[in-house]
Amino acid sequence: MNQVRIGIIGMGNMGTIHAKSLLNEEIEGAKLTAVLEVRKERLEDLQENLGDDIKVFADEDAFLKSGSVDAVLIATPHYDHASLAIKAFKHRLHVLCEKPVGVYTKQVREMNEAAKSSNLTFSVMYNQRTNPVYQKVRDLIQTNELGEIRRINWLITSWYRAQSYYDSGGWRATWAGEGGGVLINQCPHQLDLWQWMTGMMPTRMRAFCYFGKHRNIEVEDDVTAFTEYENGATGVFITSTGEAPGTNRLEISGDRGKIVVEDNKLTFWRLRVPEPEFNKDYKGGFGSPETWKCELPVEGVETGHKGITQNFVDAIRKGTPLLAPGEEGILGLTLSNAMQLSTWEDDWVTFPIDEDLYYHHLQEKIKNSTMVKHNHHIVLNVEGTH
Amino acid sequence: MNQVRIGIIGMGNMGTIHAKSLLNEEIEGAKLTAVLEVRKERLEDLQENLGDDIKVFADEDAFLKSGSVDAVLIATPHYDHASLAIKAFKHRLHVLCEKPVGVYTKQVREMNEAAKSSNLTFSVMYNQRTNPVYQKVRDLIQTNELGEIRRINWLITSWYRAQSYYDSGGWRATWAGEGGGVLINQCPHQLDLWQWMTGMMPTRMRAFCYFGKHRNIEVEDDVTAFTEYENGATGVFITSTGEAPGTNRLEISGDRGKIVVEDNKLTFWRLRVPEPEFNKDYKGGFGSPETWKCELPVEGVETGHKGITQNFVDAIRKGTPLLAPGEEGILGLTLSNAMQLSTWEDDWVTFPIDEDLYYHHLQEKIKNSTMVKHNHHIVLNVEGTH
User: Fold this and answer.
1) A:B CB pairs within 8 Å
2) Do B77 and B155 fall within a single domain?
3) Which of A137, A289, B50, B92 has its CA 20 to 30 A from that of A195?
4) Are residues B321 and B336 in the same domain?
5) Residue B241 and residue B194 share a domain
6) Chain-chain contact of B162 with A279 (C-beta, under 8 angstroms)
7) For residues A310-331, b (16+ Cβ closer than 10 Å) or e, as one string?
């Protein structure tokens, strides 16, 4: 394939950003050929801005059947991600899906099955996987430089959002519109990186979500989650959209040392001998293993959204391995679902989670929602966001 | 009183340190006049080392009735702290008690009542309250510079202890000997500072203790605790004796900024306008309050054990207010008891905690203990410990 013809589904905040990259020819081997936008009031403006070379569709079926795209980039509200992806696969279209891949894992499992049987290229916009710092952390863990993981601690409270943010879109921060708050909208990156870097999913979790604690919203805006892993490690994940200035500090402790990432800077402490070995040989009272604070090269630049889109296009054109395979989207989402479920049940959640129970709770939340918002659909300036 | 005559009860690791300070005349207005040591095999050495001016007692009653001391410094294993303090008050002796003030709050409550009715001076060896950094944090909170507290996060995993440490004393890390592990032995300082700096005790807690996870011991050596406060704030406290290199990082977030203490260095971020005010006025999408990273003077030096002892002596001699009143020892201990209790019940613990239930659990642990240790009584070199 000489050029991958891409159609964007959903021309809101993120769809607009992706369209610009394609129109500016920032993605090699790809071009924007169509967009699908269901909000009829936006169609005229879109056609005018995009020009005659880009087809603007309001009808989903017409778009999918048009033959004018080889691949779709899905940037709609979250609930539609999985069903749209499934439809796209049926129409033999490759899929790059914005995060989160869906709202509940039941739905995403179906999408993954459709992707698998289609043999098409399926990727998810986990753009923070392109960050060399997190790639280095993953490297240190995968090559056993850190040793057996003992503790993971991520304080990610730098997702500050004022009430005006929540008021800017009718679907935002509602059970029916997003199916969650900070976990489903802001944190999918960290929830994915958490499992991607460590290669571990919990065996069980106890989480404490607070709904509308800092803002007039019905979904969670403050979360603390505690996890246990099969190897005995534990983890804590803390997030909030109500704190300023927030913190983004990840610490992973292993039996050969410790990694801290704060302000996008990686620090690695390496034990001269692994801790279990020190413990076995040491005969004194208060001693501890000799520790070396190491400066490691962190090479490369974070290519972000464009990097993921380029990788997706390269996978289609050249068979390049995907950095963020779509099928992996379910892992971070499972963590997110588990955090809400543990809170609703006020109890431990064991993995694999009870997907039906989660779905049942979510439907109850939607049914009992009293949050009515005016459907502003303000397109925000999202420069500098993730 | 010209000079306070002090008797030390328990000449183990800490008792020996305190004796040295007194003998070296490092505490103004106080002198060591007697010691009580129940381990008969140590008496001869003690008398030889201390010289003829210091009376060495093996019998508790004889020591308390001797008339040779005005005040006692209790440095025995924890279980005996409260009962010894109660006896000392009965003999009209002032009491400076090593941390923790006791093992279970029921016992400590009785001690506090005895102290109160005695009108004698009662202090606890919370030497980290003399650290100007923590004093500054307390100051920033008490004067509302930080605003309403929203989150407290303390990662205190720098209490590394090898197996040899636990093997060095028969009472160490057993239910019968210490009544706990990292919470009762290493963490009393942080548990105290946690409530002392913030002025807040939780309304409820959910904690996850692991017993003998890293070492061959029966008590907890790894803990994660989650707390809720009346004002809506939450907290996380994480500790371990099995990690290297450990971390000691405290973060307190308020609605006017954020404090971080790491490596004994305080950093304060101040919001130009309080967060609720920003949130009310802001009309944009992704903005957050203007934040100033401030450099604050932190004055004074950490006087440590000697500082607390000096303050205790000054309180007796001159009525100087106590920096660490003994009655406050119960607060940190309550946090510690609550963490174990929540784990044992595998449920939330609400405050005030069920002291009888805690006591019942503890007795069961003691009864069912299979941990038999050889009673080494090795005196460790504790220079540089806390």
Assistant:
1) 150
2) no
3) A289
4) no
5) yes
6) yes
7) bbbbbbbbeeeebbbbbbbbbb
Alpha-carbon separation of residue A372 from A162, A164, A369 (angstroms):
18, 15, 8
Beta bridge partners of B36: B9, B57
Q: How far is CA A124 from CA A6, A79, A186, in A?
A: 15, 15, 15
Whether B53 and B170 share a structural domain:
no
∠ CA A17-A44-A78, nearest 5°, is 45
Residues A85 and A211 in one domain: no
Q: Tell me what ipTM this predicted complex has.
A: 0.94
Residues B37, B56: Cα–Cα separation, whole Å: 7
Quickly count: other Cβ atoms within 10 Å of residue B65's Cβ.
10
Query: Is residue A120 one of the residues assigned to a domain?
Result: yes
Same domain, B254 and B340: yes
In a shared domain, residues A242 and A278:
yes
For residue A245, whether the previous peptide bond is cis, meaning omega lies within 30 degrees of 0, is yes
Chain B 240-279, residues with CB within 8 Å of chain A CB atoms: 240, 242-247, 251, 253, 257-258, 260, 269, 271, 275, 278-279
Per-residue confidence band for A375, with pLDDT thresholds at 50, 70 and 90: very low
Query: Is B381 a member of any domain?
Result: no
Is B377 part of a structural domain of the chain? no
CATH of the domain at B116: 3.40.50.720
Say whether residue B370 is in contact with chain A using an 8 A CB cutoff.
no
* Number of domains forming the structure of chain B: 2
Confidence grade of residue A372 (pLDDT, cut at 50, 70, 90):
low
Interchain contact A24–B (C-beta under 8 A): no
- Please report where in the chains the tokens 């008496």 appear, as a residue: B43
Interface contact flag, A286 B155, Cβ < 8 Å: no
- A208, A213, A243 member nearest B232 (Cβ): A213
pTM of the model: 0.94
pLDDT of residue B173: 94
* A248 occurs within a structural domain: yes
Q: Encode chain B (386 residues) as per-residue pLDDT tens digits.
A: 789 999 999 999 899 999 999 999 999 999 999 999 999 999 999 999 999 999 999 999 999 999 999 999 999 999 999 999 999 999 999 999 999 999 999 999 999 999 999 999 999 999 999 999 999 999 999 999 999 999 999 999 999 999 999 998 778 899 999 999 999 999 999 999 999 999 999 999 999 999 999 999 999 999 999 999 999 999 999 999 999 999 999 999 999 999 999 999 999 999 999 999 999 999 999 999 999 999 999 999 999 999 999 999 999 999 999 999 999 999 999 999 999 999 999 999 999 999 999 999 999 999 999 876 544 444 455 444 45
- Contact at 8 Å (CB) between B213 and B131? no
Check A151 against B243: CB less than 8 A apart: yes
**Does the beta carbon of A225 lie under 8 angstroms from any beta carbon of chain B?**
no
Q: Which chain B positions have a beta carbon within 8 Å of A246's beta carbon?
A: 288
- Please indicate, yes or no, whether residues B178 and B282 belong to a single structural domain of this protein: yes
Q: Inspect the interface and report whether the beta carbons of B238 and A236 lie closer than 8 Å.
A: yes
Say whether A213 and B236 touch across the interface (CB within 8 A).
Answer: no
Q: Domain limits at A110?
A: 4-125+303-325
Q: Give the domain CATH number at A143.
A: 3.30.360.10
- Which residues of chain B neighbour A161 with C-beta distances below 8 Å? 286
